[in-house]
Design brief:
Blueprint lengths: L3 E4 L3 H13 L3 E7 L6 H5 L2 E6 L10 H11 L3 E3 L9 H9 L3 E2 L4 H8 L1 H10 L15 H11 L3 E5 L9 E3 L5 H16 L4 E5 L5 E9 L5 E13 L2 E7 L6 H17 L4 E9 L5 E7 L6 H8 L3 H9 L16 E8 L1 E2 L5 E2 L2 E2 L2 E3 L6 E5 L6 E2 L6 E9 L2 H13 L2 E3 L5 H9 L1 H5 L6 H4 L3
Parallel strand pairs: 1-2, 1-4, 2-3, 4-5
Antiparallel strand pairs: 6-7, 6-8, 9-10, 9-12, 10-11, 11-14, 12-13, 14-21, 15-16, 17-20, 18-22, 19-21
Helix pairs in contact: 4-5, 12-13
GO molecular function, one term: biotin carboxylase activity
Pfam family, one: Biotin_carb_N
Protein name: Biotin carboxylase
Amino acid sequence: MFKRVLVANRGEIAVRIIYALRELGIESVAIYSEADKDSLHVELADYAVCIGPPPPQDSYLNFSRIMSAAVVSGVDAIHPGYGFLAENPDFADLVEKSGFIFIGPSSRHIQFMGDKIEAKRLMKEAGVPVLPGTENPVGSLSEARNIVRDIGLPVIIKAASGGGGRGMRIVRNPDALEKAFSMAQKEAEISFGDPRVYIEKYIENPRHIEVQIAADQHGNIIHLGERECSIQRRHQKLLEESPSPAVDENLRTKMGEAAIKGAQAINYHSLGTMEFLLDEDGNFYFMEMNTRIQVEHPVTEWVTGIDLVKMQILIAMGEKLSHTQEEINFKGHAIEVRVNAEDPDNGFIPNPGKIEFLHFPGGPGVRIDTHIYQGYTIPPYYDSLIGKLIVHDEDRSSAIKRLYRALEETIIKGVKTTVPFYLKLLENEDFQKGNIDTHFLERFKW
């Protein structure tokens, strides 16, 4: 169905999508800003179109320039990757109305699940466990006080259109509510152009567990297991693994069934991720749904043997899922670390610059997803992610050892990276035992 696809993104995910398109026999069109003219995705694509100067609002976030590139390139579809416009319902709607296929869910689904309040309401109606809290935006401080009185402290205030930890405040003391409520509203307005916030019960030491689902346009939905995403810094994931050391077969089945039930309730199609909080008693609660390919998708690919990007493209082409739930088997353990151009000794500040020397590890069970190369200059305008190192082995202990070996063999000179940070993390006894939660790095001594 597709002859040519425009990749509306940059960096490692653009390279990953181009690989999948090539293996499917589909031509690729890269877009790039002036700052990315030497990026690997530009070199690898069949065609490439410059869409503007470095600032994202003038390039990767610019609807008209991206759509112009699609028109002049004669593509059939647009793949948004993750980040940028991947979960922008207005962009997806424009793609659909312009006669192209958006490789992802419908704009309606993106809008539903992008509104955290609406998503929570829909999941509650579908019978998916949700945290106690508000079903509508909280409009005033007096209303917030009444809600806190009903559900009890601690609570968390969240932006209705939020993500990435922005517009989020935890309240443990009633005297702190007024300031937290005001700051959450202001930050939500600045970050998302939407000041609406909601309140829900806060779990003190949860794990962040997400379930990968795939749904075709013929009503078939499956889950592909869970990913443990609890190693986070300021609500940004750094290390992900599959399976979770806290999830047994029984819990995996329950979480998978809940994720499928939620997707069925909205007639969802495409890849998607249901994100849950898991408490210390084994109870899980819906947090949000991501309607795109995830940064951490490789760990699921390795334990299932399924190419998720190809699957996403084939679903958009109208193909039926090639696997039933009974055919999904999980093998071994996979771990991914996000290699960022950041200085961990100096508050993890971004460290763009020229890569003077580069050597990536190899050997069995080692995978590198990246857009960089020796001599490449990392631009200062975008996310600091420069690559992902993913390993797979027969069990978690073996995977940790393999990852440590691979990190030791990773040499990146010219810029600071997070590689030394991960080496120390893997040496931590609690991490090795799987005793982790979303606050683990707050306790971790670096």
